[in-house]
Write a structure and sequence with these properties.
heterodimer, A: 163 residues, mainly alpha, 3 strands, 11% strand, B: 134 residues, 4 helices, sodium:proton antiporter activity (chain B), transmembrane helix (chain B), transmembrane (chain B)
Chain lengths: 163, 134
């Protein structure tokens, strides 16, 4: 019964929260409308989301987001230096296949998005069996270290979040 | 507005503009489409981020309002930037790369862009399974 009314509780919460942020100033009327949206939107789109992703502790998600934002800042500066100062002939772009331990589609999507957002790497494709990501590196004199960073820094944490 | 507020906002705007400029310059300077793809997808994240923080600071110092719209802009940007990057990369792979030129995901396996057996993926199978059992 609860499942039918609230197929995706987290999605409901996010939809309601996004509506409140869009309104940009608190009013009881908007809270009511946010709750209505939070009930209607997940119920109406439930056929497209047959599975509920299992998500771990919120503290881990906050920690993950903080790490990613910090890495974006750090790596943006690194990419800016490559663009501005590195001579073109010293640039070492490469393709890097990343074997995945993650299996849930949601976790792989988050990992691919993280790889693209952190500067210097873009995720370009998924293997047919869903067990590897194709990543393009802007400047990787040592591709093994990039692979190691993706595996230990992001994938290990995502494995704990999506169980 | 206090002098401190003005300095903070000005510094943030200069940082945002600077990274935007570097992203644009990267488009001009980097040698091929795959490396060019890196410059704008990145500059967007930090450059736009700095401008958004400047916008929040302006609302706060000038009008005393805590504005939340900027969080939403950042959220939607973080959701859409990887998708556009992926689409451009895949289109480029279709047009200019052959499967032999790319490292294979595993011996005998293939990337989704070039293969035709996506239906055999365990991810698709996992999605199909409960529907079958119902």
């Amino acid at each position: 019964m609860i499942r039918r009314i609230l197929p995706h509780p987290v999605l409901s919460l996010v939809v309601a929260l996004v509506w409140l942020l869009l309104v940009n100033r608190f009013a009881w009327g908007s809270l009511v409308f946010a709750l209505i949206l939070g009930l209607v939107v997940p119920a109406a789109t439930a056929p497209y989301w047959p599975h509920r992703a299992r998500i771990g502790s919120p503290a881990k998600i906050v920690a993950y987001v903080a790490i990613v934002i910090w890495d974006i800042v750090k790596a943006n500066i690194a990419v800016a230096r490559i663009v501005l100062f590195l001579p073109k002939r010293d640039l070492r772009p490469c393709w890097l296949p990343v074997p995945l331990d993650l299996t849930s589609p949601e976790a792989i999507t988050v990992l691919a998005g993280t790889i693209t957002l952190t500067p210097g790497t873009v995720s370009c494709d998924l293997s047919e069996d869903g067990r590897a990501l194709l990543v393009h590196c802007l400047h990787a004199p040592d591709p093994a270290s990039v692979l190691d960073e993706i595996k230990t820094r992001y994938e290990a944490r995502l494995k704990e979040i999506f169980r | 507005m206090s002098a401190l507020g003005e300095i903070v906002i000005a510094v943030l705007l200069v940082i945002g503009g600077g990274f935007g400029l570097v992203g644009g310059w990267g488009l001009v300077r980097l040698p091929d489409p795959m490396t060019r793809l890196h410059a704008p997808t990145k500059a967007a994240t930090l450059g736009v981020g700095a401008v958004l923080v400047a916008s929040m600071a302006t609302m706060w110092f000038r009008f005393g309002i805590l504005s939340w719209h900027e969080f939403l802009i950042a959220l939607f940007l973080f959701l859409t930037a990887p998708v556009t990057g992926l689409f451009i990369a895949k289109a480029h792979m279709h047009l200019s790369w052959k499967r032999e030129e790319l490292p294979p995901p595993a011996p005998g396996a293939d990337w989704a862009t070039y293969g035709d057996s996506a239906a055999e993926s365990p991810m698709v199978a996992a999605l199909e399974e409960p529907r079958r059992s119902e």
